[in-house]
Amino acid sequence: MTIEIKVPALGESVSEASIAKLHKKVGDAVKADELICELETDKVTLEVNAPSNGVISALSVKEGDNVKVGDLIASMQSGSASASLQRDKSAEFQAPAQGGNSQFLSPAPKKLAAENNIDTSAIAGTGKDGRVTKGDVLEVVANGSAPKAAANAIGSKSTERVKMSKLRQKIAERLKESQNTAAILTTFNEVDMTEVMALRAQYKDAFEKKHGAKLGFMSFFVKACVTALKELPAVNAEIDGTDIVYKNFYDIGVAVGSPQGLVVPVLREADQLNLAGVEKGILELGVKARDGKLTIGDLTGATFTISNGGVYGSLMSTPIINPPQSAILGMHKIQERPMVVAGEIKIRPMMYLALSYDHRIIDGKEAVTFLVRVKELLEDPRRLVLDM
Is 359 among the residues known to form the active site? Predict the structure, then answer.
């Protein structure tokens, strides 16, 4: 029996995705729930699995293709299949190529080439591994000549054209939207990390043994920001038309790296978490980001964001606000510097802090006060424990 594998529902307000990676090819035997392909939307990466045991008999897409909900990804024959069926089905989607090698063709370009009497062996494919795509065949039909491959010689130089991922396209769109809409300013301060580092060094082993998560710096920053947000509610608010929406909850976006690029999963109800709860939450989100398991719900609804460019060595930056939020805190590299302490010059581990904020809703006084409050809490972390 032939089973069609189609693009599933992608989530609220998401109707399009791209084929990020194909894990199976025509003729491959698969087991129920085995991964067939990965879909990438502008928010998350989703997995499409086999509905039952069987053999992949046809692929209707290639890596990089844009697809919509309900589009056909692949067909498979359910149940066990003999090796001869696998060979026959594989051969069905191959055509002769120059040099006696076989050239993989998916159904769309194969059909188009047959209808227009085109020898695909003369086409330099622009798809993965030099495969001929439907677009390659269409260009031959339109121009009467084979298209150039993705890497083109320009004199003694060469270029390579790679399509932006859905996630990267969305990041670009939202960051530009932020710059075009918000009146973004950035205020800076610096924090002496001596006390936080000493506290972490003293308790990190016992903390990890008890809670199963490492005691990092981010938990201190999350707790300090939540305290400051409660005192300065405009920094936790957003603009909706001509209204200001003040939020009495604290869902903190924590920027982390993933194979698909920078993503900002959300730590929910951070005000209800202690340091261990924050570290466990961040650990879970980081693992999901690394493994491509983040859901749409994990990435939406933050009221404030903390970004840590310091892990990449950044000494100072001006982070861009994630709309519709009104502010974002940038952490940076900890660097020892000579500082005047009680009239004496001492070497201290210092970090520059940057708060980018929307001046339409947050005044300069509020922004500076927020950053000073965060600085105070971090320089005396006992305040975080005592809620002072």
Answer: yes
47 and 18 in one domain? Answer: yes
Point out the catalytic residue in the list 28, 359, 380, 387: 359
H/E run at residue 22:
strand 16-22
Token reading at 161: 């054209």
Tens of pLDDT, residue by residue over 341-372, are 999 999 999 999 999 999 999 999 999 999 99
pTM over cut 0.85: no
Residue type, 128: K
And the tokens for 53? 């045991």
Q: Is 380 a catalytic residue?
A: no
218, 313: one domain:
yes
Provide the residue range defining the domain that includes 367.
Answer: 167-386
Number of separate domains in the chain: 3
Query: In this structure, are residues 292 and 269 in contact, taking their beta carbons and an 8 Å threshold?
Result: no
Task: Give the burial class of 160: count Cβ atoms within 10 A of its Cβ; 0-12 exposed, 13-18 middle, 19 or more buried.
Answer: exposed
Q: What are 201-216's pLDDT values in tens digits?
A: 999 999 999 999 999 9
Query: One of 88, 205, 291, 363 is an active-site residue; which one?
Result: 363
Structure tokens, 179: 């710059």
Residue 234 sits in the same domain as residue 333: yes
Kind of pairing, strands 157-160 and 151-154? Answer: antiparallel
Phi and psi angles of residue 347, each rounded to the nearest 5 degrees, phi first: -85, 125
